[in-house]
Design brief:
Helix content is 0%, strand content 46%. The chain is mainly beta and 103 residues long.
Length: 103
């Protein structure tokens, strides 16, 4: 089970986009990368496919290493490390290491 999930609000803590925050768009488990909305913007050059699809430069989000982002806790509002807690019924939950609240 990953500590970061799709649609989590995260903050970039390392790299050229340090300090930016956004929503996780997708996760690549094999590469250990996440795609964060508004961070690590790359330019992709595309050719014209036909008359209705012109070519040009498209800006989109690039991958960021999963170790370089932290989840922003909705309870305390700070970027924190995630941990796991197993409840009495055997359900595994994510918890914030700063405030020990369930996410």
């Amino acid at each position: 089970m990953l500590k970061i999930k799709k649609n989590d609000k995260v903050k970039v803590v390392k790299g050229k986009d340090r300090g930016k925050s956004g929503k996780v768009l997708r996760i690549s488990r094999q590469d250990g990368k996440v795609y964060v909305e508004g961070a690590n913007i790359i330019s992709k050059h595309t050719r014209q496919q036909d008359q209705s699809k012109p070519g040009g430069i498209i800006k989109k989000e690039g991958p960021i290493n999963i170790a370089n982002v932290r989840v922003i806790c909705p309870n305390c509002g700070k970027p924190a490390r995630m941990g796991f807690d197993i409840s009495g019924s055997g359900i595994k939950n994510r918890i914030c290491k700063k405030c020990n609240q369930q996410i």
